[in-house]
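LOG
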Amino acid sequence: MALRYGKMLIHHHLYKSLRFVPQLVVKRSTTSDFCNQMSGKREYVGYGVNGSPVYADLPEYPMPAIRFREGGDEFCALREKERGDWNKLTLDEIKKLYRGSFCQTFAEMQAPTGEWKLAAGISCWAMAIAILMTVLEQLLEPLPESFEEDKRQAQLKRMIALEMNPITGLASKWDYEVEDWKFRNNIGILTHLTTIIETISQYLTYRQIFMMQ
C-alpha cells in the first residue's frame, strides 16, 4: 500500500512539473528569418548564391536572389513601362531600371579598388617598426657576459680541452702535441721551404757564374 501511494505521489509531481515545459520552449530565429526580415519588400527574382534572400554583387553569380532596391511608386511605374516597347524608354529610364535591380555594373565590380595600397602601407609600417625595435634593442641592451674577451678565450680553451668535433671542427685544427694551431705550423713549414728554395737558387746562380769564368 505504501509502495503504491509512493508511485502515485511521484507521478503526480512529475506530471505537475511537465505541465510547464511547453511554456519554456521559445521559437528560435534562424538565418533565413533574419534574411527575410532584412530583405524588406524587395522582389525575389532568382536563386542567388545559396538560395537565401541576400543581395551581393559577384561576377561569379551575376543574378542575385533579390533586387537591389525596394519597389517604390516611381520604380513600379518604370517596371510597367518596361513591359511595353523598349524603344519608348529613354536612356535615363533604362539606367534607373538597371540601378533598381543591380547596384554595380560588371565594369564597376571588376575595377581595381586600390586596397593593395593599404595592405602595402601597413606592411611597410610593420617592417619599419620591427627594424627600429631590433636596432634599438641591439644598441640599448648590453651584451651578455659570454661576449667578453676573457670569457670567449675561456670557452675556446674548454672546447679544445674537450676535443669537440675532432673530425672537421675546432679540435681538428688544433695540434695537441705542439699545443698550437696547425695552420701556424704549416706557415712555419712553408717559410722554411721558401728559405731552402731561395738558398738552392742562389747556389745554382753562383755555380753558373763560376762555370762561365
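LOG (cont.) second protein
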Amino acid sequence: MNLVFVGFYFLLALKQGIGLKTVKDIPEQFIAEFEGGHKQKRSVVTGTVLTASEIKVAVDKHNEYRRIVVPSASNMLEMVWDPELGKMAQDYSRTCTYAHSSGRRTSNFTWVGENLYLRSNEWSATKVLEDAITGWDNEKKVYTYSSKACSRVCGHYTQTAWAESYAVGCGVTTCSNVTVGSKVWSTAQIVVCNYGPGGNIKGKHPYISGSPCSACPKGYGCKNGLCSLSADSNMLKGLTSFMLTATVFAMLYTTV
C-alpha cells in the first residue's frame, strides 16, 4: 500500500507545484503609443467575423514572427486567440476609421494594445491578415534593441513582439471611397488587431533577450521556442496519466 500513497502524494505535489498563472495587466498610465494615425471616415462595404481558419492564420503568423526575434527572446509567450479582443477589433474595423481607438479595455485586460493596417484594394481576409502582420514585423529593421529606439515608426513591431502580450484578436473590413492624403481609394481594407495585455511601455524592452524559453513564467512549458501554457498542460497530463497508471498497478500488486 505504500506505493499507492506515494503515487497520490506525487500527484498532489505536482498539482500544487505547477500553478497556471497569467501575466498581470499593465497599468494604463505607463503606456506610450509609438505610432500615430490618420483620421479618415469611410463607409463600410463588408466586414464579417473571421472564420476559424482565418483566426488560425492570424495567431500562427504572430507566433511565427515572435519565435524569430533578434536577439532571441527568453520570455516570449505564445499568443492565443481571445474572442473578446476579436470582437473589439472587428467592431472597430467596421467604423472604417484609420486612427487609434480610445479607452481600450476588456473584462480581462485593463489596457489593450492596438495595431492598424490599411491597403488600397481588396484581398481575401487570409491574405490581408498575413500582409498586415508581415508588414508590422518588417518594422524591426528600424528598431534597435539595445537602445530601445526607432529610426522611423516601429510601434507596430514592438507590440507584436511584446513578450507579455499573450492574447490577440483581429478584425478585417472593406471600406469604400477612402481619402488618404491626396489620393482617393475606391476600395480599401482596414485590419485591426488588439493585444492583451497591451505593450509598448515607455522605457522597456519588448522582451528579455536570451535563449528561447530560458525565462518562462512559472507554470509555462516550452513549445517551439515560445513559453506556452498548453505545452505545460500537455506535460502535466502526460505525467498525471503515467502516475495514475503506476498507482493502479501498485494497487493491483498489493491486492494479489
